Amino acid sequence: MTAAILNIDWQTLADALALGGVYALMAVGIGLVFGVLRLVNFAYGQLVMAGAYALAFSSRWQWPTWGGILLCFGVVLALSTAMDRLVFRPLRTHSPAVMLVATFAVAFLLQSIALLAFGPLGDIATSLAPLNRPVSISGVDIRKIAIVSVVVAAGCLLGLQLLLGRTSVGLQMRAASMDFRTARMLGVRANRVIAGAVLVSGALAAVVSVMLTVQNPLVTPDFALRDTIVVLAGVVLGGLNRPVPATLGGFAIGFASGLLGGALPTNQSQYLPTFLFAAVILVLLVRPNGLFTRGRGSVERV
Amino acid sequence: MRRAAQLTELAGPAALVLGAALVGMAVSSSTETYFVDTLVKVSIVVALYVFIGNSGVLSFGHVSFVALGAWTAGVLSVPASEKPAIMPNLAGFLRDTTVGNVPSLALAALAGSVLALLVGLPLMRLSGLAAGIATFAVLEIVHNVLRYYDKIGPGLNTFSSVPETTGLWQAAIGALIAVALAFAYQRSRFGRQLRAAREDPAAASAAGISVYRQRLVAFVLSGALAGFAGGLYVHLLPLNTEALYLDLTFVTLAMLVVGGSTSLLGAVVGALAVSGLDSLLAAAENGIDVFGAHLDLPAGTRVIVVGALMAIVLIARPGGLTGGRELRLPPRRRRAEAPTATESA
User: Mind telling me how many Å the CA of A233 is from chain B's nearest CA?
Assistant: First the structure.
């Protein structure tokens, strides 16, 4: 155990922070859609995957970096809007379990389309590779992307808080997530609010694609699939109902995962998912409503 | 009249299983494997149904019981002489023990139920999303452990040399056992109490039903059936951990949802319909002739079609193909409830 603790150096800490930052971004995207639609979007990772493929193709066509990023945003935003129109909107009145299974289906659908169209081998996205280079801060090599992702995550969360708290669109989103029917009766345009939330969440997915392709340039059809599963667990752990606890949950699980990955001795590091998900189960048992929410009884009142 | 109505509830699914087995007998031996595979899938989906259908709580974790069942039956039935070659690091007890076909299936069911009990004791307190994520976590953990802990199985390797005893008859009898147990459970007071709790948890607890205990009973039974199905599966074809992971979870959940998750008939219909389509597409990926036209689909089409079908059924018919209802005889006044049956008569 002492050896395990000693293994955590500044390097691991920095990498864990970077992973936490990216996962926090995904958590914001998932939490935002859940807040408005009450829908856990399993297919979120496939949005990220689509964006990553856009980056990979633009680097194969030797587009300038800004062109690739623009294409990435375009593809992800179009896909998330299509998902909203074709799947989320018809399913809006169904039970959460049905919606969860439906997004599960969409996730597999998109993944197999990618497998069919682009093959299993994967493409390399090189657009922002310079960010992978380390900067040395007092002897610790920290990759620039680590700093960038933490800063971007914090910036996005701050922006989202401002959007939700200070603008009338944000007010409408919050109203819709509190009580959808009443909000509609009071003149909130439901479809527009939901489309807005889906777009913001799509934009976040595009940012995540850029960040993840820098850390892991090989884009395969199951790109970001594992990350989505982990982030979903993190989001539920943190508390799905509000953006800040959801983000904190995402950050916490990314940080824990990075830390465990660095701290476990090599012969046990293959069991990282076991440790991680055992921790998830433990936390869920102790605080089923979320780690970062104020406790409230979960028993339904008649 | 009521007794007859009860029996049709069992007879419908059982007849479908038998029908699939009989058709499987009539076709060529290369096509027969599709039918055997379908019947094993029926067992898995019925196992899923026992918990998800009766309780209304989503579980992504049942494939971990299937996997453990497959591991148990597989490890115990590989001949002792071949064990060191496939599983060099096997623990002593498992290395020295070899059992026959039927005991291995029984032990697989036992393993599934024990794991379900261990997991269910804490987890059945959760519901909704928390339950979904927690069962997913169980799937991840079991997959991870089976994949790397090679003292209890082949680890990263594929399970070869397991006697291939799951033919058409074993698969059909297995599916019938699963259907009969699921039927007996849902007619029992345990099943009825759990279904009441599914409809209205608050009212059910007010009526003195322990929702937790009823969910646990269903979870353990369903774990036993899933383990049993895993045993059948490993006796059918060489498996590895990847075959018992996300894809199988997705396909079996799709079957349950497409058929209609709240009825036994739905579970069987969904498994048969999706499997049938899947097998047809799998054959078409290799190129087949259907009604004179040559069909040759690119590899990977089947998952796309099944995924799209699942999304469409969910949107257009959230209750599934059967609407979540059991097969019932029409009441005395002529009111066709099952149009296909009346038309063919």
Answer: 6
The boundaries of the domain holding residue B165 are 2-241
pLDDT digits (tens, 9 = 90+) for A151-177: 888 888 888 888 888 888 888 888 877
- Cross-strand pairs, B289: B294
Instruction: Spell out where B292-343 has E strands.
Output: 293-295
Cα–Cα distance measured from residue B246 to residue B12, given in angstroms and rounded to the nearest whole number: 30
* Helix, strand or coil, per DSSP, at residue B278: helix
Reported ipTM: the value is 0.84
Helices (H), chain B: 2-26, 29-55, 62-77, 83-86, 92-96, 101-123, 128-148, 168-187, 189-199, 201-206, 211-234, 246-259, 264-285, 301-316, 339-344
Average pLDDT per block of 10 residues along chain B, 345 residues long: 72 90 85 90 96 91 96 91 83 84 95 96 86 91 92 86 88 95 94 92 91 95 97 93 88 87 92 87 72 66 80 80 77 50 37
* Burial label, B335 (beta-carbon count in 10 A; 0-12, 13-18, 19+): exposed
- What pLDDT does residue B98 have? 87
Give which of A274, A299, A302 to mutate to test B binding, by max B Cβ within 10 Å. Answer: A274
Spatial neighbors of A34 by CB under 8 A, at least 6 apart, are A40, A41, A235, A240, A241, A246
Rounded CA separation B138/A187 (Å) = 44
Q: Which of A91, A233, A274 sits opposite B314 (nearest CB)?
A: A91
Tell me the average pLDDT across A33-44: 83
Q: Is residue B191 one of the residues assigned to a domain? A: yes
Can you give the pLDDT at residue B340?
44
pLDDT reported for residue A171: 85
Contact assignment for A104 to B250 by CB distance below 8 Å: yes
Q: Give chain A's radius of gyration (CA, Å).
A: 19
Cβ B307–A100 below 8 Å, yes or no? no
The C-alpha atoms of residue A191 and residue A194 are separated, in whole angstroms, by: 5
Interchain pair A271, B148: CB under 8 A: yes
Q: Is A277 in contact with B141 (Cβ distance < 8 A)?
A: yes
Alpha carbons B17 and A186: distance in angstroms, whole number: 54
The predicted structure's pLDDT at residue B281 = 82
CA dihedral over A202, A204, A205, A209, signed as positive or negative: positive
Q: Count of domains in chain B?
A: 1
Q: For chain A, what is the mean pLDDT?
A: 82
Cα B342 to Cα A112: distance, rounded to the nearest angstrom: 39
